[in-house]
Amino acid sequence: MSKAFDVLVIGGGPGGYIAAIRAAQLGFNVACAESNAYDDPKGEPRLGGTCLNVGCIPSKALLASSEELEKIEHHAADHGIKVGSVSMDTKKMISRKDEIVTKMTGGIQYLFKKNKITLLKGHASFAGKDASGYQIQIDGKEKETVTAKNVIIATGSKARHLPGVVVDNQLICDNEGALKFDVAPKKLGVIGAGVIGLELGSVWRRLGAEVTILEAMPSFLGACDPGIAKEAQKLFAKQGLNIQTGVKIGEVKADKKGVSIQYADNTGKAQKLDCERLIVSVGRVPNTDKLGLDKIGLKVDERGFIPIDDHTCATAASGVYAVGDVVRGPMLAHKAEDEGVLVAEIIAGQKPHIDYNCIPWVIYTDPEIAWVGKNEQQLKDEGRAYKAGQFPFAANGRALGMGRSDGFVKVLADAKTDEILGVHIIGPNASDLIAEAAVAMEFKAAAEDIARICHPHPSLSEVVREAALAADQRALNM
């Protein structure tokens, strides 16, 4: 007799493991299937998905290590700290990153045991449906078929590769290979000036690489507020990142000497970039193949995403839901987590809600970039009357004391009602500061609400308050 579950989650990434934990908290008999070992030394499936294993967490660990090196090399003297020769033990840096990943993924295994969640080790796919529920085939070291009344698809995404460009994760790498460099290359090429390209390009630039980033789009960071993107491009160029936009990639060749990239620049002139290693970071595609969706009457759209109801994440198959990178919306771990919680609560008969306009975005460069809500160009395109308030970190005592005074905060509010429509930050700790804006927007707060709240002094959060004050021409420290 096959095992039967109330809820079965396919995929153990942020959307999947959080969905499983929330469903278990609500009293369901829950299982989660995961097959990716992510270089586990024992070849065992590892929980946490791309985010914890080869994405968010390891990249932030490397960013932190490279930032420490840069502080010592270039900023310690500003504080009166004298240092001698400094070098980076790259192998130790990578080892530290791996230790953090192992600790985090092990923590999820503990949470599964704590919440009595059954881990099914193997690739899960639909085999059919009958009166007892959906039959899910698990292909692992041992094959089995289990039954579930409700299924949550949370299989995440994988790196998009360019046609004709073979990613070997040695010379030509995607995000996974770029996290494992044994030494910093002298010359590093990056195709794609998105989040991954900028973050990993920053890591290896700090460790001594000459980094050239080739971006096909005519503008830099098109998803950002135009003012933020302009400031970021200026600051990154000052740091030494060579960012070229509007390029057209041609032939890419790899040999013993390295990698050669033929491309046309934004004027159409033929150019060539020779580098030791190349990172290809041109987006991600959903992991929706080999799920056996046809066995239950489901199809993906032209981009490979699973169509769902926008409010409940329900697919066209009753009792089957999909969350995270396999559905519409931004490919963000915290978006997947919220959708996982939402679906578990819907299965329990609750009525949760997600306001996708209030989901914050973050790029963990230095300075960090974060935003929530609409940007100025979007508001102009909508024809919405708005007012803007902006305040620089250069006028903030805490930022000056930290030696982190680049950037600013911008608050956009409705011209009549003063409702906050968007907040955009480039500066120190932007990833933490943006949370205040997200909370404010969830409660439909006005810019004046933030402006009248007492913020601690001295703190970086005062810049958010001053920007809110500036939206009404009331900034106090400028």
Automatic annotation (TrEMBL):
Residues 5-340 form the FAD/NAD(P)-binding domain. The active site is at H457 (proton acceptor). Belongs to the class-I pyridine nucleotide-disulfide oxidoreductase family. The keyword Ligase does not apply. It catalyses: N(6)-[(R)-dihydrolipoyl]-L-lysyl-[protein] + NAD(+) = N(6)-[(R)-lipoyl]-L-lysyl-[protein] + NADH + H(+). NAD(+) binds at G192, A193, G194, V195, I196, G197, L198, E199, E215, G283. Its main location: cytoplasm. PANTHER family: DIHYDROLIPOYL DEHYDROGENASE (PTHR22912:SF224), DISULFIDE OXIDOREDUCTASE (PTHR22912). Keywords: Cytoplasm, Disulfide bond, FAD, Flavoprotein, NAD, Nucleotide-binding, Oxidoreductase, Redox-active center. FAD binds at K60, T155, G156, S157, D325, M331, L332, A333, H334. Binds 1 FAD per subunit. Its cofactor is FAD. It comes from Polynucleobacter paneuropaeus. The active site is a redox-active disulfide bond. One of its GO terms (molecular function) is dihydrolipoyl dehydrogenase (NADH) activity. It is found in: Cytoplasm. The keyword Chloroplast does not apply. InterPro entries: Class-I_Pyr_Nuc-Dis_Oxidored (IPR050151), FAD/NAD-bd_sf (IPR036188), FAD/NAD-binding_dom (IPR023753), FAD/NAD-linked_Rdtase_dimer_sf (IPR016156), Lipoamide_DH (IPR006258), Pyr_nuc-diS_OxRdtase (IPR001100), Pyr_nucl-diS_OxRdtase_dimer (IPR004099), Pyr_OxRdtase_I_AS (IPR012999). This is Dihydrolipoyl dehydrogenase. One of its GO terms (cellular component) is cytoplasm. NCBIfam families: lipoamide_DH.
